[in-house]
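In the laboratory, one determines a bound structure by crystallizing the protein with its ligand and collecting diffraction data. In a computational setting the workflow is compressed into a single prediction: the sequence and the ligand go in, and a structural description comes out. We illustrate the idea with adenosine monophosphate.
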Amino acid sequence: MNPVVVRAISALRQAVHDVRRRGLTVGFVPTMGALHEGHASLIRAARKETGFVVVSIFVNPTQFGPHEDLARYPQPFEKDLALCAVESADLVFAPQVETLYPQGFRTAVEVGGLQDVLEGSSRPGHFRGVATVVLKLFHLVSPDHAYFGQKDAQQVRIIQQMTRDLNLPVEVRVCPIVREADGLALSSRNVFLDTAQRKNATVLYRSLVEAQAMIKQGERSSTVLQRMLTERITATPGVILDSAAIVDADSLQPIDPLREQVLIA
Ligand code: AMP
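The predicted complex, in structure-token form:
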């Protein structure tokens, strides 16, 4: 069955209110659209655990920097709806930009310490935009569970921290990374890659797997691992490395030697 498509906040609130009165739990999958199997896996997880599944499709302008790809971010809306229908989502919330950010909007959420490192250091303001829109969406959808991909590990960490710090009554569920057969993580932005770039992009997965293998064999020096990652990635034609970092999975701070859970980003 096709999901109900809702663009207005009042209609969304009414729909969620109605299903709650019917005693259903609400699962929420926030997305920017251009949906693929990675998003589908989140919708399936929500479908399995909750009675009413809401998917939001919103290309959030506040998480894009001035020189990023906001204007050309893919928006195949009809195709997205078809995927939501196949995965049996119940409702698609697809607001206009002015609906979420009316004239005079001023408030932002900052998750100190976590938002400015790793990807945040090359994309200033990105995670402020993410946290702010996710908080707004949580308030609007009021889900029991919200589903995020481990692919965006820093985002997950920030949303978990925000949820805890602000006592949000939402359980954050983290779902595994869905990859192509050759290891490249599915991403809406992969359509921007030409054939050669697409092939070279697998260096990310290959170098992550190699780092993981080195750790399993006992390597504990972050410096050694980082050197390997940097050399491998920068030696690949057409690849420009922002950063290769090994951090504590909780604080996202560099850690050397490795201990407890680490994140290689
Ligand atoms: P996006 O539309 O890129 O903002 O992503 C929406 C959600 O889907 C985020 O929680 C992402 O982490 C998740 N996601 C995107 N790609 C994948 C993937 N390949 N595997 C798992 N989750 C993903």
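The CA atoms of residues 18 and 24 lie 9 Å apart. Keep in mind that any predicted model is a hypothesis to be tested, not a measurement.
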